[in-house]
Amino acid sequence: MNTDIYDFYIPEHLIAKNPTERRSDSRLLVYYRDSGRIVDSHTREVADFLDDSYFLVFNNSRVIPARLNVTKPDSGADGEFLCLKLVDSRTLHVMTDRARKYKVGAKVRLPDGTIVTVVRDIDNITKEVTAETDTFSYEYFERWGTMPLPPYMHKMATDADKERYQTVYSQIYGSAAAPTAGLHFDDRIFDSLAAKNIEHAFVSLHVGLGTFMPIYADKIEEHIIHKEEYIITDENAALINNAIAAGKKILAVGTTSLRTLETVGDSAHKSVRAGRGVSDIYIYPPYTLRTADCLFTNFHTPKSSLAVLVSALIGVDELLRVYKYAVDQEYRFFSYGDAMLIL
Q: How many CB atoms lie within 10 A of CB 220?
């Protein structure tokens, strides 16, 4: 299938640069797969479309303030690292502003003055860098890094973004971008879900290139997803498996939650497995869900694997129809934008 099919147009004024004042005040487009019906609502009312036959699964990965302003000591040239993985106290995997600018052996000064060396090219866009002493920790990034807002926002991260570009339930550090579907959820929504006895569990998938790298291949089938680390605890796996055994519909909150469930799901035994691993699952049409049943998600960027994933659930023509409807109704798009519930 040609990737250009997914090159839909989103007007600039509909690209959300800032979140709504209150998380659950964002708009919600509800789409019913069996009929193609669309209902306009708000995320604070999501429980109105659910009952206790649904079971929600959230991604509780926490975003690292992963952007570091850097300088090359030999030339004084400024640049930027985006940390994709904190390997250990001396080693980072980073995406750079210009790959050819940072050749193997290059020295780079970090914001605190630490000098790191580029020791290898991991692939054509990521590098491994090392420091000579124990330097890196999540506290290091909290002090010296900034939140990795997507470039289409055209703004520098502020102190407010430190809170709003995290989900309220984020727990396990590791993401280089937010699992944005969860940004809409707050105590108001969780209280409304609890009032209807709608239960939930958590998985962790650390968002990286596998999630936000655009599709550059001419055919969507040729795109390769980068590996991302996931974690599912025994407790959360048991909660999900009990829900499956009870015949509940598994509603993944976010494409990362859905991809994690599909990675660890065993359709033959109707269960998921606990543990830690890596996911490089790429969901595109045609695809039959083996663990998840429904999806709560944001509106995604053109030519992204996330838009392709949504089309695997509802069909390419329906994706384009729904997105055109959302544009016509002036829904807000992308990370800080509005949401879509696919039932």
A: 22
Instruction: Look at residues 213, 242, 234 and name the one whose alpha carbon lies nearest to residue 225.
Output: 213
List Cα–Cα distances, 286 to 1, 283, 314, 336, in angstroms.
11, 8, 10, 29
Pairwise CA distance, residues 28 & 7, whole Å: 23
pLDDT-based confidence at 99, cuts 50/70/90?
Answer: low
* Sheet of 228-232, strand order: 38-42, 27-31, 339-342, 294-298, 249-253, 54-59, 199-205, 228-232, 275-279
- Whether the per-residue pLDDT at 268 is higher than 80: the answer is no
Averaged pLDDT, 32-58: 98
Instruction: Please give the CATH architecture assigned to the domain spanning 3-63+163-342.
Output: 3-Layer(aba) Sandwich (3.40)
Owner of token pair 């729904």: 322
pLDDT of residue 279: 96
Per-residue pLDDT tens digits for 22-34: 999 999 999 999 9
* Tens digit of each residue's pLDDT (9 = 90 or more) over 170-181: 999 999 999 999
Per CATH, is 67-145 categorized as 3.40.1190.20?
no
Rounded Cα distance, 230 and 228, in Å:
7
Segments making up each domain of the chain, as ranges: 3-63+163-342, 67-145
List Cβ neighbours of 100 (8 Å cut-off, separation of 6 or more): none
Q: CA–CA separation, 296 vs 340, rounded Å?
A: 6
- Report the candidate in 19, 37, 11 with the shortest Cα–Cα distance to residue 158: 19
pLDDT at position 1 is 95
* Adjacent-strand bridge partners of 203: 59
